[in-house]
C-alpha cells in the first residue's frame, strides 16, 4: 500500500488484512496507533521520512505468519523512548531501520547469532548500551550504529561475518582495540572515528 497523505496514521488500518504498509515520505504527524499491532498479517511496515512522535508500539510487525520475514522502517521521524524489547524476540527480521529519531536505552537485544536480520540501522539516536559481548547475526550485510552513546568495545563476533559489507560505529563512546580477522580489513577509518579511545587497524596502533 503506497499513499500520499498528511495528518495522523489512521487507526482504522487495524481492521484490515494488509500484509505490507508503506507511508514513506508523506506528511504524517502524531503517534503511531497502538491498534496497528492488531493487524493479523502485517509483516512489513514503513513510515519513514515523516513527522511521527511518541514511542514505537510493540508488535507492529510481529503478528504475521511465523515463518515470514519481517521488516520495520521508521527512519527520519521524531520518535522517542526505548525500542520495545519484544522486537528482540523476533528472529525473522530482514531489516530493522529506526535511524534519525530520538530513541534511548538499550538495543543489544536486537541481535543474536540465530537471528535472520541482514540490515540494521540505529544511527542518529540516543541509544546507550554495552556493545562488547553482543553476538551479531551471521547473515548481517549492513550495520550502522553511528551517532549514539554506545560504549564498551567492538565485538569480536564481527570478525565472523562473511557477508558484512557496510559497518559504521563512528561517533560513539567505544574504547579498546578493534578486532582483526575475517572481513574486518575492508572497513576504513571512518567506520570507527570519533569514539572515546578505539585503536588498532585501521586506526593508529594501541
From TrEMBL:
InterPro entries: Leu-rich_rpt, LRR_dom_sf, PGIP. It is found in: Cell envelope. This is Uncharacterized protein. SUPFAM superfamilies: L domain-like. The lineage of its organism: Eukaryota, Viridiplantae, Streptophyta, Embryophyta, Tracheophyta. PANTHER family: LEUCINE-RICH REPEAT-CONTAINING N-TERMINAL PLANT-TYPE DOMAIN-CONTAINING PROTEIN (PTHR48059:SF27), POLYGALACTURONASE INHIBITOR 1 (PTHR48059). Pfam families: LRR_1.
